[in-house]
Design a protein that fits this description.
- This protein is 32% helix and 22% strand.
- It is built from eleven helices and 17 strands.
- The strands form five sheets. Strands 1-2-6-3-7-16 form a six-stranded mixed β-sheet.
- Helix 8 packs across helix 10.
- The two termini are 43 Å apart.
- Bound molecules: zinc ion (ZN) (2 copies).
- One zinc ion binds next to loops.
- GO terms for molecular function: aminoacylase activity; metal ion binding.
């Protein structure tokens, strides 16, 4: 079968692979209390059954990182890293047609679970691909490492950020990384060479409090409303470019309101007649990776939160914005990156079609790897699948899941057998 969904019926081998996927999906890995211990214990058992070496690292107490290794025949060559995160975003069960941790498989083969797409599918696909490669006697030239990291969904400060800074990471001598991507609604696979840069923006406004009946200038909420309006105008200008087809979603700056906070709420019977003296709004801001952050800062100071209107702001950068050489966090997808050619070719050998490489609108841990100057691609083999990450009723079809395993088998065997990377080795020597 090619990269399109293979036909039923599945074999008993495939049924066991689906069962292991469902088992992993049933572990409650959603924030704010992800069951990291449960996930690590399940994955470690899988890894031992395959014959991979396991190591649990704990850079932050209670937040384990599981690292698996299959050593190559040439330990001097940079290795391959397959990365996924252990955690999931929360789910609202009342909005789901099947409970979000049931991993229910419907008659059409859709497996429903929080994490089915983001990104527990790739974790099991990596393992099943390695299981097959071991079973058929494959022996890698380069070492293959698999990392399962905590806290990706909350920014990775206690997860991948600490991992890439560690001695254990340095010793792995990673040359290339595959990390999560996103579903494709068409029959073409998607691949991501960069992420947008995430920021949290908090704007605070102050003003005189006042009687609920009084009309006066410069109240905190009135000031904050001006901020909200200025942000909305900017947001429209960016969104219009996307709607008109002039720019892709990932090429513009997104800014979305996450919360608003002001005043005293009025429970029944409470007199509601006080105008607030403080008001606050929080925004999620994402920047294309080559964007100048100072331009954003200037816009905030002059237009969104001017001090002249009693406003202050905090722009919180979540993770790195440049690599260790001061370059944007972007992986080359041309002949300057020999890993790219191996990747592209392995996809085609597996019968897959690739869309033009994209920048991810959201953000992943791949940015920490790119920060270290290591090429990293975001890739989740999910074709003909609606994009449901962080949404209600997240699901993945069994056939798509199974086909992804075959794609990874091709990718892992090609990437770990790759002989020369002279260009990259020069880059490493420069560091
Ligand atoms: Zn994810
Ligand atoms: Zn996510």
């Amino acid at each position: 079968a090619g990269a399109g969904a293979p036909d039923f019926p599945s074999t008993s081998d495939e049924e066991s692979q689906i069962e292991r996927f469902q088992q992993y999906l049933r572990i409650r890995t959603a924030h704010p209390y992800p069951d990291y211990a449960g996930a690590v214990s399940f994955l470690s058992a899988q890894a031992r059954s395959i014959g991979l070496e396991t190591l649990t690292l704990e850079f932050t107490p209670g937040k384990p990182l599981l690292l698996l290794s299959w050593y190559g025949s040439d330990l001097s060559l940079p290795s391959l890293l397959l990365n996924s995160h252990l955690d999931s975003v929360p789910a609202e069960p009342s909005h789901w047609i099947h409970p979000p941790f049931s991993a229910h498989r419907d008659p059409e083969g859709r497996i429903y679970a929080r994490g089915a797409q983001d990104d527990k599918s790739i974790a099991i696909q990596y393992l099943e691909a390695l299981r097959h490669l071991k079973a058929r006697g494959f022996s890698p030239l380069r070492s293959i490492h698999v990392s399962f990291v905590p806290d990706e969904e909350i920014g990775g400060a206690d997860g991948h950020a600490k991992f890439v800074a560690s001695e254990q990471f340095r010793r792995l001598n990673i040359g290339f990384v595959l990390d999560e991507g996103q579903a494709s609604p068409t029959d073409e696979l998607r691949v991501f060479y960069a992420d947008r840069l995430p920021f949290s923006l908090i704007v605070n406004a102050v003003g005189s409090p006042g009687h609920g009946s009084k009309m006066y200038d410069g109240s905190a909420v009135e000031n904050l409303m001006e901020c909200a309006e200025a942000v909305a105008r900017f947001r429209d200008s960016q969104f219009d470019l996307v709607k008109a087809g002039i720019m892709a979603g990932f090429e513009v700056i997104s800014v979305n309101t996450v919360y608003m906070k002001a005043g005293t709420p009025a429970p029944t019977g409470f007199v509601m007649n006080l105008q607030a003296s403080e008001a606050e709004m929080g925004f999620d801001v994402r920047l294309p990776p080559t964007e100048d952050i100072d331009v954003l800062r200037k816009r905030i100071q002059e237009e969104w939160a001017p001090i002249s209107r009693n406003m202050t702001y905090q722009l919180i950068q979540k993770g790195p914005t440049r690599d260790i050489n001061g370059r944007p966090l972007v992986t080359a997808t041309n002949e300057s990156n020999p890993w790219w050619s191996v990747f592209e070719q392995a996809i085609s050998v597996a019968g897959g079609k690739l869309e033009k490489p994209e920048i991810l609108s959201s953000t992943t841990d791949a940015r920490y790897l790119r920060q270290m100057g290591i090429p990293a691609l975001g890739f989740s083999p999910m074709v003909n699948t609606p994009i449901l990450l962080h949404d209600h009723n997240e699901f993945l079809k069994d056939t798509v899941f199974l086909n992804g395993i075959k794609i990874y088998e091709n990718l892992i065997s090609a990437l770990s057998s790759f002989q020369s990377e002279s260009i990259l080795e020069e880059i490493h020597l420069e560091l």
